[in-house]
Every structure is written in C-alpha cells, then in structure tokens.
Amino acid sequence: MKRAFLKVIKYEIIPNIQNNNKSYYFYSTVKRRFGELYQPKTRYEKKKHLEIINEVYFDMTDAMNEKNKLEIEEYKNIDKNISEIILNHTISKKNEVIRNIMKYCIEISCKEKKGKSDKSEKSEKTTHLNHNNNNNNELTDTTKYYGGINKKHEFEEDILNVIKTSVMEYSNQFNSCDIGILLKCFIKIKVDDINLINTLFHYFFKRNMKFSQYGSLYVLNAFAKFNLLPKHENYFKLLSSHILQKLDKFDFKNIPLICNYSSSLYLYDKEYITNFIEQICNFLISNNYIIICPEDNKISYSPNTTESNNIIPNLNNSTYNINQVEQLWSADSIHYVTNALARVNYLKKNLFVFFKTLIEKKVPFFSIDQLVSLTNAFSKFKNAEESNFLSLYLLIAEQIINKSYLLKPRHLSVLANSFNNACILHQKLFQVISENSLAQINLFEPKQIIMIIHSYVNIGLGNNILLKSIWNYAILFINEYTIQELSMLLQAYTKSSQYIEHFINQLSQKILQFFKKTYPFLFESYNNILYDHQKYINLSIEFKNNQKSISTNITDKYISLSFYLIYNYPNYINFIDTLKNNKTKKNNLNSVSTLLDEYKTDNSVKPNNLVTDHEKNDEIENTNTFQIDNTYTKDTYINKNHDNNTYPNEINTIQYFLDIEKAEKYLIKHMNKYTNSTLVCSIIYSLIKGNCLLEYELLISLSKLAIIYLKNFKYSELANVCSALSLAYVRSSEENNKQVELISQFTKNNNNATILEDSHIDTTQTYNDQIYNSSKDFLNISKIFFDHVETYLLKKTNTFTDVYSIYKFITSFGELRMNKYSNVSLHLFKLYIMDIKNLSYLPLQKITDSFMQMNVYNEDIYAFIKKIQKMKKKK
C-alpha cells in the first residue's frame, strides 16, 4: 500500500503548500546527464531522498555530508557539546545562505522542468483538439504568474539577484566544500556570472583552504561547464595538480567523474589533459582498481612483468580477486573512463581490454545511451576484428537491438558512425537503424544527417532505402552546415556514385559562398596577382617591417600581401636567376663586342653568319636594355628610400625572402580557424575526380588554397591534389581551345561575304566570353601551382613517400604535356627506381606514356620499364 502511495505522489503536484504565493512541488531534480549520478534507485535511497527532496539535490547528498564533517573539524577545538549545539542550531549564517541557495536552485529547476512538460502537453493537446475556445481552461505559465511571462522572468531574476548578493556577502566564510557546492548549484541552473565565479575562485585557491574531494570535483566541473579556460589556466593547473596529489583521498566513484570532467577540456590543452588522465589511470592500476590481464581473464601476478605503453601493474596483493574489481566498477564508472580515454585519444590497448572484459559481464546493466557511447569509444581503434573487439561489438549490437524502441536520432547517427569506423557491417543492426531513421527522419539534426550519410556510404550501403530518402533532407539544411560538414557531404556524395544535379550544384555553390565570405582575397582579379618585380620588392619590405603585428593579428591587407608573396615566389626566384645570368653576360659584353667588330671588318664572313651574329647581338642588346630598365626602376625606388645601393646589390634582394616561410606560417595560422590541408584536398579531389565539375570560380579559389597549403599536405594528399588539378587542367584546356575555335570560326564567317545564312555556327555552340576568360585564368593559376610543386619536389634527395604517390605525381605532370616538368618527373623516377619495380603492368605503362607526353628521350628508362613489364606478363 505504501509503495502504491509513493508511486501516486511521485508525479503529482502538491498544490496547497503556499509560501508568498509560490507553489512547491514534489520534484526529482536528477536527470540522466552525462557526468552525474542517476535518480535514487534503491528503496532506501528513495525513502531518504523524500525527506530532503525540496532541500538538497540527490546527487549532492554525499557532498553535504562532507560539508558537515568539515564543519565539525572547524569546531573541533571547542567543547564537543558546544560544537554540536552550534551545528544543530545552524548559528552560522553561511550555512543558512547555502541551504537557501540550494532551495532556490531546486525551485528554479523545478519550474523550468514543469514549464517544459506543460509546453509538451499543450502541443500534444492542440494536435487533437478542435480550434475552439475550450482551450482557455488549460494551465499555463502565464496563468500561474498573474503578471504573465514577463512577471515570471522578473521573479526568477529577483531570486538570482538574491543568490548573487548572498554569495558575495558571505564568500569569505565559505570553505572549499561550500564553494564547490555553490558552483554545482550554479551549473544546474546555468548561471555563469563571471564576477561571482572569480570571487569564489579567489577564496577556493587560498593557501590555507582545507581539502574537500567534492569541492575539488565540483570546481573541476565548473571549468568544464563555464568555459573558464584559458583565462583561468593557472587556477586549473593548480587544481589538477592538487587532485593528483590527493587522489587516494577520493572515493572511487568520483575518480571516473574526474576523468569525465577533465576530458571535456581536451581541446584547450591536449597534451596537458592527456597527461593528467594518464596519471589517473596509472593511479588506478597501481591501486589494483584496474588489473591488466591477458585474454583468458586470469590475472598475472608476476611483479617483474612490465606492460607495454609504460603501464606497470602493481599486483603485490595476491589475494586481490578480479571478482572484487568487477563489483567495484559500476556501469557508470566504466562508461565515464572509457569515454574519457577515447576523447583524449589515450588508446592504450591493455586498458581497453580490461574494460572490454568488464563490459561483457555487465552489458545488461548499461543504458541505451551508455551502450551507444561505448561503441563510439571502442571505434577509435578502427578495425574491430584486428583489435580483437569484434565479440564486444556483437554483444553490444544484440543489446541495442533488444532495446531498439529506445533509439533516438542522436543514437542512430552515432551507432552508424561507430560501426562504420569499426568496419563492421552488422546487417540486422543496420536494418534496425534504417527502420528507426525512416520513422524519425523529421527529427534529425543537420549534423546527424551528415553522419548517417557518411557512414552508410563508407560501409557500402549506397543503395539502401534510407540513403535514397535522406539526400533531399540533407539539402534542406545546407545553410546550417560548416565547411567541414559540407566537405563530408561532398565526399559521401562522390563515393555514393549518385547523380543528383540540383544537389551537387547547390552544394558547390554553398562551398563557393563560404570561401567568398571567409577568404575574399582568393577572389581578387587575376591581374592583381600578376608578377611585377618592383611590386614584389615593395611588398616584401613592407612585410618585413610589419612582421611583429602580422604575427599576432594578420589583417585583410596583410593577408593579400602574404598571399601575393607566396604565390609569386617562383617567379621572383626565376627573375633573380635571370638577373644573375644577365650580370654574367654583361661581364662578357666587351669581348662579345670585340668579336662583333671582327665580323664587320672580315670580308670573308658569310652573310648567314653575319645575320646570325647580328641576331645574337640584338638579343644581347635587348637583354641589356631589359636589365638596364629594371635597374633604373630599382635605382629610382632605392633613391626614394635614401639608399645608395647600385645594380649589383639588387641581386642580394633575395635576403628579403628568407621570410617567405614566415609569410606561409602566418597566413596558414589565420586560415586554420576554418580550414586545413586535409579539407582542401578532400574538396578538390571530390569535385574534380568524382564529379568532373568545372566551376571555374571555385576551382581558381581551391587552386590558390592548394598553393598556400602545399607544404602542409601529406605527400599522399598532395599527389591526389596534383592528380585532380591536372585532370581539371586538361578539361579546361579543351574547353578553352573550343572557345578559341569558335572565335576563329566566327571571324572567318564574318569575313566570308559569300557564306550562306544557314551555314553559320550551331546555336548550341556559341562563344562564351566568361568561359574563355575563366578557363584561361584557371590554366594560368594551375601552371603556377605545378611550378610550386616542381620546386618543392626537386628539393627531395631521399625517398619521402610511397611509390603510388610517386606514380600519381609523374602521371599528373605527364597529363599537362609540358616539357618543363620532365626534370622533376625523372628526378622522382630515379629516387624510386627500386620501388617502381613493384608496380603492376598498367601503372608502368601509364608512367611510360607520361614520359612520352613530356618528350623525354631516354632509351634507358623505356628499356627498363619494358623489361619489368615483360617480367610481369610472364608471372
């Protein structure tokens, strides 16, 4: 009867308890949040919680107990009876403040939850009721607060102001546990007043503050929830070092929470957080909370055995039984630690093997959230079969299928992604995912749609009914995707072998819009980036003079300046080399002039020879004229800057460009906020190789990005970019030639007065000035890109990548059909001549064709390749 009564009142409102016109309700404040304890489960917990339901959060009862113990210690020097009187009657004002604040927080949380439930109930009712005046009797937030919604907000603001004032007034009296409890309350009601937090931190980190495990735990939670880094980095490092020193004083159930909270700060300082969690794991191992064991689940007691990855288990206590360890680890604790390890990429195989053993024995006790989260954590090891985690995935999949009625869109997307990463095509599970996804397709968030599409395509379910239906939903959210998500969507579309014209057009346009908005310098006129030596010198000096300001905050002006220096660097080097060669010719000019006079006075000289020598002389004179003009320009510039340098010193201007790497560094640092080399490679390869898309404006911007990220690409990525851009170059060249033919044909037809009217050019093939100019600009920029690649690869003196990337480099240069790239192709061929033998017949033939396209006349190379091909045929 008692149980039935409790079940009834659990969800009912107690309406008659009034205090200053405020309603109080029975309310269980604990939700299934990641990083918090769950609702009271046992009969004892429920009974105990009913006694304090409006006064203390259930998951903070242990913290309140610790607070009471600390207060007893504060009064330990006073007579025992007196101290008990002080505590029992709560003379301390700060205790009243803390209790009142917690009551206020519970009340606010209660009203927020009640408001949400009322809204959901109202929405359900309105879908079933007719649109009439009968709905006026429903209880809403506005009827509870007679002043309406504004009155409600004012009421809550008043409470928050009271809380803030009280905390500021008694802050100097709070101990470490008090401060932690207050911060936890603020987390629950989402109050992140920075002045309030700064005040509490000031007192928490005082030297003589007494240790509190819950105080430290909740302060760490505040760092995770309130985005206090990097502003309070010193406080955080002080706290983390203090936690490591006092780990033995923490209850075991709180140590997994420490891992969970700290792992959420991973992006702020990856190395520090990883090291922090590693030390916690070493503590758990050394105290036998984690026992490293082989696959047969028998503990190894050899004290001299050293585990890999610097993990040395301490198993001196031979009476310790693995069953005791299993009882110690709850489903929550396992979940928190494995997720923390995966989040910071601390993927030590022996740790995950230990947790795999525990999970397999406790798998029925995990919630659907935890099961999905565990698959995501173990998927970090990629191939599950190779990692020996296949049995775990199959067991979890079975549990998820049994609980499939609980699956939500967030579960479905993560599940699909996890099993894709683990390379497991579980047919029954993916059928469940497909059915549930189709039923809830309107509830998916944009990111979840991307994850579903990406996972299904990669796992090989391109023809799945879900994937066929979801493309149209993906395009609805195209304005909400980040550039990374757009790249993933483009990559998945390419792999799926789908052809949805409106989809790819909208997708490419959205990517173009992003680059236009984020990096406008990529869309400057081609004429603005044409090489001009004097301009290059001027900009290089300006860059050097403003290097300090550029290194800290690069503005739009210096973004364009840096790009100009990077883009035209090969042209500058060529210009300097030409000047050096011209200087050498100038030194020999007198002897050449003497020789010319001899030719003029020699009657026996043949006319042909005279012509030839005059041509040579003209060439020399032209060269000198070019040299003198540039010298004049340079001298004019130098005179303006009050510098008396002469022409020979102009050659030394290369010193300005020892800073070219700094220009690249500063520009890439700025661009890495939104893009990176891998993303640029993915977009280029998917657009060109996968979809044959010639959107010149987009291709030009991507080619410029490829020049900027050239040295940041992995060699395999650079090979893919070269392969894609060479293909785009060939197609663009064909289109440009077609436009040239149309121009010539149009001119010819206009000049031919006798031509018949019906013999004009086909209307479907008319000259397009925009296509002609755009394709021409792209061809020019592509040449600059390959010039950069040539310079970059010629510097390689040893093997630096795999032979398949070399194959892509050589064939890419071959497709350009330019003799100038034969040197770099031969250089790569000689570096990898031993590895090239391992290529199959067809790649070898393509390498041969590439050398022929570049007009390489080297019989030894052709004979070598032919010999290998014959050997391949015999096999």
- Stretches where pLDDT falls below 50 for ≥5 residues? 1-38, 122-151, 295-320, 598-656, 753-761
Number of strands: 0
Query: Can you count the helices?
Result: 41
What is the straight-line distance between the termini? Answer: 85 Å
Portion in helices: 55-70%
How is the biggest beta sheet arranged?
Answer: none
Overall mean pLDDT stands at 77
Give the amount of beta strand, in percent: under 5%
Rg computed from alpha carbons, rounded to a whole number of angstroms: 37 Å
Shape call? globular
Judged by helices, strands and strand pairing, the structural class is mainly alpha
Domain RNA-editing substrate-binding complex 6 protein: 328-494
Protein name: RNA-editing substrate-binding complex 6 protein domain-containing protein
Biased composition (Low complexity): 129-140
Organism: Plasmodium vinckei vinckei
